[in-house]
């Protein structure tokens, strides 16, 4: 089973507005409202891929009830910890005329100590060797990087994928005593970790950083240029086809879904990278966040080129 952890879920609202301008009045040409947050985007794509999944994290208030109802509607099993605070809402404004996407993200509720303890008690009950855990997104108020330390300690017999950024990513890479099985930062997040010196490094030198030594899978997203990756002791460069993106929001989450799917099915290293990148590409071709057209998966996989470096 794949368990997705979304510490800070959200109702994702995507507006489509032609020629969006600041300090102006606009009519919305199209709107999508979905159960979101990075981990739930992962969940939705895994569901489409046919994986056995369970979604967990924290939910509260009317927004939390909406998300639960949406997950039930699309058939995603879930067990979330109830919070006193209201689950957040995030907004994306997509202007296809100018090719821009603007995102507005609420911070989320404050998680109490008792709510945090309840979550970890539940997580301990899921510590079954062979499970795969994918923890994605920001932490709500009340939680800090110690959340990851405790999670990795509880799940030491499982393969854990963590997708986070900023201070939390820095903690995982440099300070955490126990490491996740996989991370998937983008190149800007890597530059934030190591500074501008990475600009003079080769792709392989970048992946050979001492800080990555004990993380079996490191995939560094290069956006439209694909990715570079370390999978165990091999190094790869992955090129993706050029596309006209409709809504890129959620593509990184979809890539995590492809990665988790591949690990759960023991796919080869090359196939793992192809699935991860293909899911990201397919999400960008959809208006809905955290969605792929499964009918286009095989043809997209064929267009992705992976070379060892």
Automatic annotation (TrEMBL):
Its pathway is: Carbohydrate metabolism; D-tagatose 6-phosphate degradation; D-glyceraldehyde 3-phosphate and glycerone phosphate from D-tagatose 6-phosphate: step 1/2
Q: What is its EC number?
A: 2.7.1.144
Name of one Pfam family that matches: PfkB
What domain of life?
A: Bacteria
User: Keyword Nucleotide-binding: yes or no?
Assistant: yes
Tell me the enzyme class. transferase
Catalytic activity annotated for this protein? D-tagatofuranose 6-phosphate + ATP = D-tagatofuranose 1,6-bisphosphate + ADP + H(+)
Which CDD domains does the record match to this protein?
A: FruK_PfkB_like (cd01164)
Which InterPro entries is this protein grouped with? Carboh/pur_kinase_PfkB_CS (IPR002173), PfkB_dom (IPR011611), Ribokinase-like (IPR029056), Tagatose/fructose_Pkinase (IPR017583)
Keywords, sorted A to Z:
ATP-binding, Kinase, Lactose metabolism, Nucleotide-binding, Transferase
Q: Which molecular-function annotation in GO is an example for this chain? A: ATP binding
Cellular component GO terms, alphabetically? Answer: cytosol
Which residues belong to any copy of the Carbohydrate kinase PfkB domain?
Answer: 12-286
Q: What is this protein called?
A: Tagatose-6-phosphate kinase
> Per the UniProt entry, what species is this protein from, by scientific name?
Helcococcus kunzii ATCC 51366
């Amino acid at each position: 089973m794949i368990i997705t952890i979304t510490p800070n879920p959200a109702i994702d609202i995507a507006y489509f507005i032609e020629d969006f301008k600041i300090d102006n009045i606009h009519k919305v040409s199209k709107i999508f409202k979905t159960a979101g947050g990075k981990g739930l985007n992962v969940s939705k794509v895994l569901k489409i891929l046919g994986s056995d999944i369970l979604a967990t994290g924290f939910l509260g208030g009317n927004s939390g009830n909406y998300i639960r109802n949406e997950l039930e509607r699309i058939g995603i099993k879930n067990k979330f910890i109830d919070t006193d605070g209201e689950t957040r809402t995030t907004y994306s404004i997509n202007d296809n005329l100018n090719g821009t996407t603007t995102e507005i993200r609420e911070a989320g509720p404050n998680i109490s100590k008792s709510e945090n303890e309840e979550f970890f008690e539940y997580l301990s009950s899921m510590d079954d060797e062979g499970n795969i855990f994918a923890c994605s997104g920001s932490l709500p108020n009340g939680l800090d990087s110690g959340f990851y330390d405790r999670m990795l300690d509880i799940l030491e017999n499982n393969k854990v994928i963590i997708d986070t950024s900023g201070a939390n990513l820095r903690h995982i890479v440099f300070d955490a005593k126990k490491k996740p099985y996989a991370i998937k930062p983008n190149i800007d997040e890597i530059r934030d970790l190591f500074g501008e010196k990475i600009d003079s490094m080769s792709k392989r030198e970048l992946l050979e950083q001492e800080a990555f030594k004990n993380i079996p899978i490191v995939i560094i997203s290069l956006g439209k240029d694909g990715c570079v990756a370390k999978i165990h002791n091999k190094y790869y460069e992955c090129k993706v086809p050029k596309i006209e993106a409709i809504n890129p929001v959620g593509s990184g989450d979809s890539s995590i879904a492809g990665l988790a799917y591949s690990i759960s099915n023991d796919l080869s290293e090359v196939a793992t990278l192809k699935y991860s990148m293909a899911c990201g590409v397919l999400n960008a071709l959809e208006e809905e966040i955290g969605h792929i057209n499964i009918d286009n998966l095989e043809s997209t996989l064929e267009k992705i080129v992976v070379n060892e470096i």
